Amino acid sequence: MTEDSSRVDSESAADEYEPALPTSRSFELLSTRRRREALGLLREHGHVTLPDIAEAVAVRQLGKDITEIDPEEVTDTYMMLYHSDIPKLEDEDVVVYDQEQDIVATGENFDTIAELLAQTSEN
User: Fold this and answer.
1) Residues 58-107: tens digit of each pLDDT
2) Is residue 66 part of a domain?
3) Total-model pTM
4) What's the rounded Cα separation, in Å, for the pair 19 and 103?
């Protein structure tokens, strides 16, 4: 193989590279506050039960202590996470959800989106 052909091979490989999670899709996943809050908790702890995520998200969204929040609000948050947010994140391998234990953990693409979350949180 000549130097020119190896350069062409490496250039074409670079042109074909697509990240596991495209930036546009990452921004879509970060578009709701609920998902950003949930991902922030996972960034801190690695894995968290879904009920704990729902409580923490409700506290942060409502700006109240958990004792001041109607349990129905936490249930509504849990249901939105369970039926909408977590499945979207799981479909992109950002999180892994163990339904038996009701635990959410970081997935294969978590670091990619966590880095973007950190960058957007700083601004």
Assistant:
1) 999 999 999 999 999 999 999 999 999 999 999 999 999 999 999 999 99
2) yes
3) 0.80
4) 27
CB atoms within 10 A of CB 58: 22
Do residues 58 and 69 touch, judged by C-beta distance below 8 A? yes
100-123 pLDDT, tens per residue?
A: 999 999 999 999 999 988 887 654
- Yes or no: say if 76 and 29 are a contact pair by the CB < 8 Å rule: no
Residues 6+ apart with CB under 8 A from 65: 59
Question: Domain with 65 in it: what CATH number?
Answer: 1.10.10
Q: Counting every residue, how long is the chain?
A: 123
